[in-house]
C-alpha cells in the first residue's frame, strides 16, 4: 500500500511538474495585421496555425486592424500597457512608433543577423532605420513605381533605357507623333496623388527634399526648381489635357511609349480579362479602343530606378514590428514567428495574396519558381529575370517624409492638402512661372506647418 501511494504521489508530482513546466514556457504572439479582407485573413490564420503546430506551447492570435485605425488603436494600447507582440503596418506608422520608443529593436537586429543583412533590399531596410542605426521595423512587402516602356520600340529607334533624365526626355521626344495620336510618355498633370508620386521620384533623383534632417523646410531650392522645369518639359509629350493614371489606356492600346506606374499594373499588361477596362474608347475620345495584345508583356520592360544626381525609386512598404514585452518567452516566440514568416514557403504564401501589390523585400524570392507560380498566372509571363529587375527598385527606395532616420509628420499633412500636384498643375496646364509656383507652394507648406 505504501508503495502504491508513493507511486501515485510520484506520478502526480511528475504530471504537475510537466504542467508547471509547460505553463512556464507557454508563449503568446498577438499579431495585428492591416490585412482585413476575409480571404487574406484566412491565409494569415493558416500560417499562424502552421507555426503553432511546429512550436509546442506557442499561441498566435491574429487580429485584423484597419490601417486607417492602426495608429489610433496602437496609441490606445500603448497607453493601456496592452500592446500586441507584433504588428504588420506601413512604414510611416512604423517610424512614428519607433520614435515613441515602444519597438523591440534588439529583436529586429537579431532577425536581420539570422537572415543576413545583405539578403534584404538595401533601400527598404534603410527606410526603417533609426538615426542611431537600429531598425524600427523589418521590411516585409510593398509596391514599387517606375517607368514601364515599349522595349521593342526603344530597340527599333536605338534608344537607351529610360533610367536617367536625359534618356527619358530623349525617348519621350523620339516616340511622340501627335499627328498620329502617339505620345512618348505619361506623367501626371492633374491635381492628384498620381502627379505627386511621379514628381517625387524625379525630385528625389535630383536630391530635392521637403525637409532636412533638422526638420527645416527646404523645398524651395534650386534642385526643386530644376525638377519642376524638367517636369514641364516632359509634359509636352503627354496626351492632351490634364492627365492622371487613367491615360495608361494609351499604352495598352499601343499609342504610348512609356508611362510611370506602380507594380499594380502588372496584371493589366498580362491578362486580357484585367486589361479590358483600358481597351475601350470610354475614357478618351482620342482613342478608338483596341484588342488585347498578348505580346505586350514580352515587349514591355521596367525601369524602377531613375538617376540624375542620385539614384531614386519611389514606392511604399509595410513591415513587421516587434513591440517591447516583459516576457522573455513572448519575445523569443515573436522572433521565431517573424523568421517563420520570412521562410520562403510562408513568405510566398503571404505575398501571393496580392500579386504585384505585395512584392518581396528579400533578394531571391522574386526568382523563386514557387513565387513565379502566383494564383493568377501573372509572374510566369514576366519570367524570373524581369521579376528580379522589378523588385531591384527596393534597393534605392526613398521618400520625402523620412530623412536620416527621422520622420516628419508635416510631410503627410502637405500631401493631404495636394500642395505639390496643385503646383505642378499650375505650371504644366495653366502656364505659371515655375519659380512663382514654387514660391506659392512653399508659402502653403509654411501655413500648414503653422509657421
Automatic annotation (TrEMBL):
A cellular component annotation (GO) from this entry? periplasmic space
List keywords of the entry alphabetically: Signal, Transport
Which InterPro entries does its entry note? Bact_solute-bd_prot1, SBP
Q: What is its main location?
A: periplasm
Q: Give one Pfam family.
A: SBP_bac_1
Give the signal sequence positions.
Answer: 1-26
Cell compartments where the protein resides: Periplasm
Family membership noted in the UniProt record: Belongs to the bacterial solute-binding protein 1 family.
Q: What is this protein called?
A: Carbohydrate ABC transporter substrate-binding protein (CUT1 family)
Give the species this sequence originates from: Marinomonas foliarum
Amino acid at each position: 500500500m505504501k508503495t502504491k501511494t508513493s507511486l501515485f504521489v510520484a506520478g502526480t508530482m511528475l504530471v504537475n511538474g510537466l504542467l508547471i513546466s509547460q505553463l512556464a514556457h507557454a508563449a503568446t504572439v498577438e499579431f495585428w495585421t492591416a490585412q482585413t479582407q476575409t480571404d487574406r485573413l484566412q491565409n494569415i490564420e493558416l500560417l499562424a496555425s502552421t507555426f503553432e503546430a511546429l512550436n509546442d506551447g506557442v499561441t498566435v492570435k491574429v487580429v485584423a486592424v484597419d490601417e486607417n485605425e492602426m495608429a489610433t488603436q496602437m496609441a490606445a494600447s500603448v497607453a493601456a500597457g496592452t500592446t500586441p507582440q507584433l504588428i504588420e503596418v506601413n512604414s510611416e506608422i512604423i517610424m512614428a512608433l519607433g520614435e515613441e520608443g515602444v519597438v523591440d529593436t534588439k529583436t529586429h537586429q537579431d532577425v536581420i543577423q539570422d537572415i543576413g543583412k545583405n539578403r534584404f533590399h538595401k533601400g527598404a531596410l534603410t527606410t526603417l532605420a533609426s538615426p542611431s542605426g537600429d531598425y524600427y521595423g523589418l521590411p516585409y512587402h510593398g509596391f514599387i513605381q517606375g517607368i514601364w516602356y515599349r522595349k521593342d520600340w526603344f530597340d527599333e529607334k536605338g534608344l537607351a533605357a529610360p533610367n536617367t533624365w536625359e534618356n527619358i526626355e530623349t525617348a519621350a521626344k523620339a516616340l511622340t507623333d501627335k499627328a498620329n495620336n502617339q505620345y512618348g510618355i505619361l506623367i501626371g498633370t492633374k491635381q492628384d496623388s498620381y502627379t505627386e508620386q511621379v514628381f517625387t521620384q524625379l525630385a528625389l533623383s535630383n536630391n530635392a527634399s521637403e525637409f532636412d534632417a533638422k526638420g527645416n523646410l527646404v523645398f524651395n531650392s534650386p534642385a526643386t526648381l530644376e525638377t519642376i522645369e524638367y517636369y514641364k518639359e516632359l509634359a509636352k509629350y503627354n496626351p492632351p489635357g490634364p492627365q492622371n493614371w487613367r491615360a495608361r489606356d494609351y499604352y495598352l492600346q499601343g499609342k504610348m511609349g512609356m508611362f510611370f506606374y506602380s507594380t499594380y499594373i502588372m496584371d493589366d499588361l498580362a491578362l486580357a480579362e484585367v486589361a479590358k477596362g483600358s481597351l475601350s474608347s470610354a475614357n478618351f475620345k482620342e482613342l478608338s479602343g483596341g484588342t488585347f495584345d498578348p505580346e505586350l508583356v514580352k515587349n514591355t520592360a521596367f525601369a524602377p530606378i531613375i538617376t540624375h544626381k542620385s539614384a531614386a525609386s519611389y514606392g511604399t512598404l509595410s513591415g513587421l514590428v516587434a513591440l517591447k514585452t516583459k516576457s522573455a518567452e513572448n519575445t523569443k516566440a515573436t522572433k521565431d514567428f517573424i523568421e517563420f514568416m520570412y521562410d520562403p514557403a510562408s513568405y510566398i504564401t503571404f505575398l501571393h495574396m496580392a500579386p504585384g501589390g505585395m512584392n518581396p523585400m528579400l533578394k531571391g524570392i522574386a526568382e523563386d519558381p514557387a513565387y513565379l507560380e502566383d494564383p493568377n498566372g501573372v509572374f510566369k509571363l514576366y519570367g524570373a529575370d524581369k521579376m528580379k529587375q522589378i523588385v531591384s527598385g527596393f534597393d534605392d527606395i526613398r521618400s520625402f517624409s523620412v530623412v536620416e532616420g527621422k520622420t516628419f509628420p508635416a510631410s503627410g499633412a502637405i500631401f493631404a492638402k495636394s500642395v505639390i500636384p496643385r503646383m505642378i498643375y499650375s505650371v504644366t496646364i495653366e502656364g505659371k512661372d515655375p519659380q512663382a509656383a514654387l514660391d506659392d507652394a512653399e508659402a502653403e507648406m509654411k501655413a500648414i506647418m503653422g509657421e
